[in-house]
Design a protein that fits this description.
There is one protein chain. The chain is of the alpha+beta class. The protein has four helices and eight strands, in the order E-H-H-E-E-E-E-H-E-H-E-E. The protein has helices at about 15-30, 45-50, 115-130, 145-150; strands at about 5-10, 55-60, 70-75, 90, 100-105, 135-140, 155-160, 165-174.
């Protein structure tokens, strides 16, 4: 992976470009037969709210025009996910955790380890804050994400239920 990539908080003027990346991911999921993200989620309001709360993060290529350098986006959350309290299964840890929602990688960057690099940076952020666990969930039929989680050391822990349906839940001890 290109170690020159820059991981930083997203800024509000990047929402249109971030949404372009999310729309690409939605189209890929649809083409692959996945039902995830096919109901209007995530919308620009979700990304704007992430950024306003300091949760929106991007991975960028250096040396290119700032906005177009963004190649991946995710919401990095340190204050919990209510759906995780009702896990059908068992988490590996009981303490504080970091989680990522809305992870998406630009079309031209897929297959280059970008999503794994994003997760690695989130792990660093968590360790800097003294957080020892990383949780994440995805749809049963999001095969690229399921492979990524297996490859990066996440353990299946059960399932969580959202308004939009059930998701498989994973945790990694940091």
């Amino acid at each position: 992976m290109d170690k020159e990539l820059i991981f930083r908080q997203a800024v509000s003027h990047e929402v249109p470009h971030i949404m372009q990346i999310i729309r690409q991911a939605q189209a890929r999921m649809y083409a692959a037969g996945s039902r995830q993200w096919q109901d209007g989620y995530p919308a620009p309001g979700h990304v704007s709210a992430d950024i306003g709360r300091g949760r929106g993060y991007v991975l960028c290529r250096p040396g290119t025009k700032e906005c177009h350098a963004v190649i991946a986006y995710g919401a990095v959350v340190f204050d919990g996910e209510p759906a995780y309290e009702a896990l059908e299964g068992k988490w590996l840890t009981d303490g504080p955790y970091v989680l990522v929602h809305r992870l998406a990688v630009a079309d031209g960057e897929r297959g280059k380890g970008v999503a794994a690099e994003f997760l690695r940076h989130v792990e660093e952020l968590a360790r800097e804050r003294g957080i020892g666990a990383f949780r994440i969930d995805t749809n049963y039929d999001n095969h690229p994400m399921l492979r990524l989680l297996e490859r990066t050391g996440f353990t299946p822990c059960g399932k969580v239920v959202y308004r939009s349906g059930e998701r498989l839940a994973f945790e990694k001890v940091l």
